[in-house]
Amino acid sequence: IAALKAAHPDRLLHQVNRFPSKTLDDIADLLPQAATQIEHHVHNQTAGLELLYWLCKTITAPNAPAWLDTIPRATILAAVLNTLEAATTRSETKRFRDLLLGDETLLIELLAHASADKIRDFARQILTTTVFEELDRRLLMSRVVKEFPFVQDLLVTRTAKEQPPIVSRASFQKRQAELDEIIQKKIPQNSKEIGQARSYGDLRENFEFKAAKDMQKLLMHRRAELEVLLTRAQPTDFTDVKTDIAQIGTSVTVTDMATGKQSTYHVLGAWDSDPDRGIISYPAALAQALLNKHVGETVESPGDTERRKLRIDRIEKVPAEILRSL
Fold first, then answer.
1. Bridging pattern class, strands 234-236 and 262-268
2. What is the DSSP string of 56-85?
3. pLDDT tens for residues 263-272?
4. Are 13 and 34 in contact (CB under 8 A)?
5. Whether the Cβ atoms of residue 283 and residue 297 lie closer than 8 Å to each other
6. Burial state string for 185-206 with b = 16 or more CB within 10 A and e = fewer than 16
7. Is CB count within 10 Å lower at the N or C end of the chain?
């Protein structure tokens, strides 16, 4: 190998998908020149188990080479799972399965930049694959659920279809803007910070690297959370709301029967809440007590030590200035 590295490095790089992991370690300094070739093999799922094993082993190692960041982690995981399932004997996959199970950070690292939908797809594949034993699948899923709690529902059999939350268009747009900023600005900036921190040396004592990786986790959590929220949400501007009963998008004026004090509550979307201005989200307990009631009806206010009786005096559309201020 040493002689070929010195005389004909191009020959070694041409065979990069055929070498065992140990040989790849020996020529690691040449591999940046083969980055495009390696990414091509991973993307087209033609990468062999030895190359995939080396990639996974190296990704989480201290001082992992920066050029590995050019290969999408989710693409590597897809290639790994599909290649493991295509293997003809379990002996071929044992070392790889041991790596995935033994390295607690590897699976999460491979999922780090994936979208919420991709993470769900991978979780489903882990749950159904025959590559791992039942206990191993549970272990891997526990790691995924810990980092990405929104996949928890894949472990639960639902008997009824969950209704999408109704949200104001303004609150939907705010969360969409936050997601866009995370994807377009914060994640690329964080990737640069991770690359810069790697250049400082030993990652085990590298505070900047640890801080950047912690921020990466926070960004990926929030990105996944927002993607799930926005996918499930049903945005509305409340223009078609009727006022014959209290419903989402109405302002309900009530009188406390004990004190005579009058209050108005603007019942709005699941992400809208400003108690100081009387804005309450429809899942809130008070809103639930008011919904579907008519003028003249009396309801009990929830959550108080002494439950107050409230008479509904008026039901109107939420004023435009309230909606504009969301």
1. unpaired
2. HHHHTSTT--GGGGGS-HHHHHHHHHHHHH
3. 999 999 999 9
4. yes
5. no
6. ebbeebeebbeebbeeeebeeb
7. N
